[in-house]
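Open question from group meeting: does this chain pack into something compact, or does most of it stay loose? Before anyone orders reagents, we agreed to write out a predicted structure and look at it together. Recording both the input and the output here so the notebook holds the full record.
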Amino acid sequence: MKQNSTHRLLVLAAVSAGLLSACGQQAKPEQSALVEIDKDPYPSTYQPLPAQATLITNVTVLDGKGGRLDKGAVLFKDGKIVQVGQSIAAPEGATVIDGEGKWVTPGIIDVHSHLGVYPTPETKSHSDGNEMTNPVTAQVWAEHSIWPQDPGFRRALAGGVTALQILPGSANLVGGRSVTVKNLPDRTIQDMKFPGAPYGLKMACGENPKRVYGDKGGPATRMGNVAGYRQAWADAQDYQEKWEKYRREHKEGKNPTPPKRDLRLETLAGVLDGEILVHMHCYRADDMGTMLDLMKEFDYQIASFQHAVESYKIADRLAENNVCSAMWADWWGFKMEAYDGIRENIPMVHKANACAIVHSDSDLGIQRLNQEAAKALGDGQRAGIDISRAEAWQWLSANPAKSLGIYDQTGSLEPGKNADLVLWSSDPFSTYAQAERVYIDGGLAFDRQDPASWPVQDFELGQPGEGDVK
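Structure tokens returned:
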């Protein structure tokens, strides 16, 4: 009897254990869905202007990539370049423009603009370009400061600018994200964003960060600047590894908890992942050399040095490392790190087979970037540097497009690319040349012959005087 009771108890225990085991299996939670971060939470809502087939004939064509065609023609349709040549038949219903004595080029792309973040009227309430609260503010985005009503956009359009990069200011080591826009002002910045263009990251070296933060706890020196970058990138690597571990464990069937989002490190990790392009405010050759070493230490790519007045000293290294230089034609000497600038900077960089760009950094200069390129071209020629007009136009279209990651879409007159182009009244390297017609995606965005079509922004209308009020 005792043996049977013992046997019964053992059987019950085994059954109970099995039931508990089965319950435990049923209670095991299902694997949660993989958490992915939306990398485009503010997508472009850009809509091109209505476009009709257009053939411009009998013009001098600079194709933007170094070629020139006299007595040439350009055909574009449905927003795209269809053909560039000398004998092109007009499709049925196409608009035909005889460009006798005129020139056609790709639209100008300005890689360094603060339109919208430092707009006109220039009041303190409109000054939204520098988040001077920490040396590293990678979490801020320039597009969240841009005022699309800035009349500077329309003035730049009248100067032949079809696209531009808008950056935060240069107070911080890491100033925040930049954005590339089509120069077709609309109600919101999302309506202007260049579809598919990568984000940029504005960084700054040299005098500005140490001047701004020297009395705020640092950095106060150039070595402090570099220490600040290195710590920021080291933190970004750690953040990157946490997310990689989370994804790896999720793939293995585990149920990991996703890391807490950090918007500052998220942007920096985007650079390390190759998704965001670094555009770095840097004047001196030694500073640029240090930044190239920093780039290699943390394995990311600098797309361009901005301002770069001493690029001529290290042009060979810039070419080797595939880094563009965005430069002024003749600004120099306004602070110590700009003191060793020379007028031949741009042509010297070009002749070293490095990527040379003419930029503005000015709401006035952006209106005549063709003339800035002409100054640099002339200074180079006077120094014995032989560069043709066709080659020099690369500084205004192809090279800027390459540095912004949009050369597959714009920057040169090639079949299949966006019809972003300018019809100039004469040689665009002339002081007297005017942009007569500016097309963006084949739509006529500016027509100098039709003043009634020129938009006027609210703040250009003025305020009525007290006596004018009825």
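Observations to bring back to the group:
The chain has a mean pLDDT of 93.
The CA atoms of residues 142 and 462 lie 28 Å apart.
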